[in-house]
Amino acid sequence: MTDPNAPAVHARGVTRSYGTRTALDAVDLDLGPGVTGLLGRNGAGKTTLLRCLATDLEASRGELRLLGRDPRRAPERTEIRRRLGYLPQNPEFYPHFTAFGLVDYVAVLKEMGGRRERHDEVRRSLDRVGLYDRRHSRVRRLSGGMRQRLGLACALLGDPELLLLDEPTIGLDPEQRIRFRSLVSEMATRSTVVLSTHQIEDVAALCRRVVCLDRGRVVFDGTPGDLVERAKGRVWVQRERPREGVTTWRLADGRYRVLTPGETGSSAAEGGRVGVEPTLEDAYLLLTGVERNAR
Amino acid sequence: MTWHLTPAQVHAYASHAVDDVTAMSVEAHLMHCAPCRTLVPADQEWIDRSWADLRDVVDRPRPHPVERLLRALGLRDGTVKLLAATPRLYRAWLVSTVFVLVCALFAAHALPKGSLVFFLTAPVVPLAGVALAYGRGVDPAHTLTSITPMAGQRLLFLRTCAVLVPAVALCTLAALMMPSPTTPWTAVFWLLPSLTLVAGSLVLCRWVHLSLASGAVGLLWLVSLAVLGSADHTTPLSVVAPHTQPWWATALAALTGMLLLRLRVRTT
Fold it and tell me: Closest to B149 (Cβ–Cβ): which among A81, A91, A102?
């Protein structure tokens, strides 16, 4: 039985191991409509989590329900896949297919019946990602950014209820990125979108919820505002190069931006340093980088 | 534009009550006169549908000859698309198949016991195609296709069919070109072993990757031939001899039954 009010993603203690290595460690999540940003370093478990949500990988332990169904049961998994869109990280294609032919092939695999209706949906999908004019070009003749958009066109087929995007903005120029954001925010009005990315500005622009993973565990789950709040009083700008052991980088005006774990705004005036408002990127770096270095 | 259609003319045109010359004159005028076009009653839904149909005919890619053939045989559009696309995914395998069969034919015609090469390789050729038909590592777009509703057994069987048909056709053609005394009947004795090996690998792929399953079955075939070849009273060719055909048929039927049972269990 499926519950129509169930969240699109319901995970309890989801664990995925590769041999002795645990890539996902007892993840608990409930995701509903809107965009959720998935942040974490390389190897934190983001792609493994997305592949579990995409029914590409089975969880080793724990309970996972997608769109109210159990992906371990074959008929229910097929039903989930009918309502799912997934853009994998670095998608690969058949190079001699045309853009239209490739998306049409995926549409057939998604069981979109009726040739005319299917072709209309393929055109609509290509148009949404700005590839309609290149529909008759061979995949091998498309640039990296165009191929990325082609993967997105495949994921968008049939307006999926659960849309999973793994590093979708790699290779996109600023104009395409804006177009992508507009597309995703439009999809998020009726779908659950999970966006795994290293582009913090995409998360800041699109997500109303952020989940941070570290070594397969959820280390933060809240709004971008909550994450930024945690970094208040820990971000500074100063003239001298700071001591070792803190995250810092040189700004264009010659000063240094410093992220300090565990300190608050009480020492704002020390050493000529000035406390500044943290950004989402600062907060993310403090969460995944500085705090761990400081342990 | 110095004149416009009167309501009476529009009504007569819309109800097909004008002669051909007048109709052409009215249509020529309507092409250039937006105000008069608004007077002509139109079924917008029909126009949109017709336009979409027309656009699809003009805009869709030209179907591959194989697609046209399969459609003419009455297969469903989606199945046609998947079957026709598969050999294009494995062009390199098709080229190697032709190469191997040409070499086997050359050996059969030029060497004293050269026909042995064909009977050893013919059953393995379709198996190699099946090994490359589906799965991570052999299908470049597997990450895209593996999360679709058709992924899994259905896509695997469809692709297997799409690979088997050209492989079996090429092997049969090569078999018919073998030197005498091979008759057309004895020339296809490799077929049942070949299909049995393919069915065996499909059964085995429930537990291991398809490529590994096909590799294991192919290796088993070659080892069996080597054992028969080294024995005193048998030759490798005895494995495809007429009296072994019922055994191959029985094995094939059993394996096919297992596959059908598995399909049924997974779809219910």
Answer: A81
pLDDT tens-digit readout, A92-141: 888 888 999 999 999 999 998 788 889 999 999 999 999 999 999 999 99
Residue A258 has pLDDT above 50, yes or no: yes
In this prediction, does ipTM exceed 0.90? Answer: no
A177 with A208: CB under 8 angstroms?
no
Spell out which residues of chain A touch residue B53, defining contact as CB-CB under 8 Å.
116
What does the alpha-carbon distance between residue B10 and residue B1 come to, in Å, rounded to a whole number?
Answer: 17
For the stretch A161-198, pLDDT in tens is 999 999 998 888 888 889 899 999 999 998 999 999 98
Q: Which domain holds residue B139?
A: 66-267
> Does the pLDDT value for residue B87 go beyond 70?
no
- The CA distance from A295 to B133, in Å, is 50
Q: Are A139 and A94 in contact (CB under 8 A)?
A: yes
pTM of the entire structure? Answer: 0.82
Same domain, yes or no, for B86 and B38? no
CB contact under 8 A, B61 and A100: yes
Contact between chains at B151 and A92 (C-beta distance less than 8 A): no
* A61-66 sheet: strands from edge to edge: A21-31, A9-18, A61-66
- Residue A181 falls inside a structural domain: yes
In whole angstroms, give the CA distance from residue A38 to residue A35. 10
Q: Which residue of A has its CA nearest to B78?
A: A108
Domain for residue A37, yes or no? yes
